[in-house]
Amino acid sequence: DVKEAMPYATYLLTTHLGSVAKKRLKELTRDRSLKLRKKAKELYAVIHRADLPRIHIRTLGEFSIRKGSYEISKDKWKGKQPQKLLKALIASGSQGVRKEILCEDLWPDSTPRSVERTFKVALHRLRTSLEPEVDPVVGFCYVQMKGNKVSLDEELCVVDVDEFLRFARRGFREEGNGNEKKALSFYDKAIAIYGGDFLPDDIYSPWAEMKREELRRKYTDVLSRAARICEKRGSSRKAIDYYQRIIDTDPLCEMAYRKLMAVSYTHLR
């Protein structure tokens, strides 16, 4: 009840005394006092989440998931549906995706009752595939469902698509503000993340194809912007490399061919 002490006590318990405090906090989550139970659970969750390994999800060029220092192998997945649900969730933005959207993408021909059951099973299997030993106090952490919306935890899950888009947006913003040097550094980070088409093996999924085309356009836009900045700054070699990458991604892009020939001619002179 001492308000002034709570911030520092929280800091000590979650930052320096976590390993010592966790057991006692777990006991306090069953205390008679509702206020104490609530605070103990909050602090326990912070300590628990800090100990969880981060999950890195790769979808550009290939699909793979690394949890901490090891990759989650195919035999650890509980069937194909959990992976499909995760892929569809990422294709829809990873955060706050309505259950109806996921069900429509994955099971468009199923009846409402059937699709509800299929979704619940797939979600549970996805969660247990990523988090086989769930903490009874905190529950599942990596994949959350609040109300009717599904999300990947932003702190615990790193998705290459989200990182690519984040760096691209920062580059657009810096370029818009006239900071071309900073913009180019963000564009280069985005380009480095883009390892190829989105979920290249999911060729028969319309939702994956739509996202694939969207990301491909974004990638060529980033390359084009980076090339223009390099041209202005007199970095012909880098501009040539960017235009060549556009052609590799979109062999029908006439603009890239014209620019590549013009910059190459200037560079050779």
Structure description:
The protein has 269 residues and is an alpha+beta fold. Helix content is 61%, strand content 9%. It has 11 helices and 7 strands. It has helices at 6-16, 18-28, 34-51, 81-91, 99-106, 112-130, 160-176, 180-193, 206-232, 236-249, 254-268, and strands at 55-58, 64-67, 70-71, 97-98, 143-146, 149-152, 157-159. The strands form 2 sheets. The protein has a 4-stranded mixed β-sheet. Strands 4-6-5 form a 3-stranded antiparallel β-sheet. Helix 2 runs antiparallel to helix 3 (34-51). The longest helix has 27 residues, at 206-232. The radius of gyration is 24 Å and the shape is globular. The N and C termini lie far apart (77 Å). The model has no long low-confidence stretch (mean pLDDT 91).
Shape label: globular
Helix content: 55-70%
Helix-strand makeup class: alpha+beta
* Rg for CA atoms: 24 Å
List keywords for this structure.
single chain, 269 residues, alpha+beta, four-stranded mixed β-sheet, three-stranded antiparallel β-sheet, 11 helices, 61% helix, 9% strand, globular
Task: Briefly summarize what is shown.
The protein is α+β, with helices and mostly antiparallel strands.
What's the topology here?
Elements: H1 6-16, H2 18-28, H3 34-51, E1 55-58, E2 64-67, E3 70-71, H4 81-91, E4 97-98, H5 99-106, H6 112-130, E5 143-146, E6 149-152, E7 157-159, H7 160-176, H8 180-193, H9 206-232, H10 236-249, H11 254-268
Parallel strand pairs: 1-7
Antiparallel strand pairs: 1-2, 2-3, 4-6, 5-6
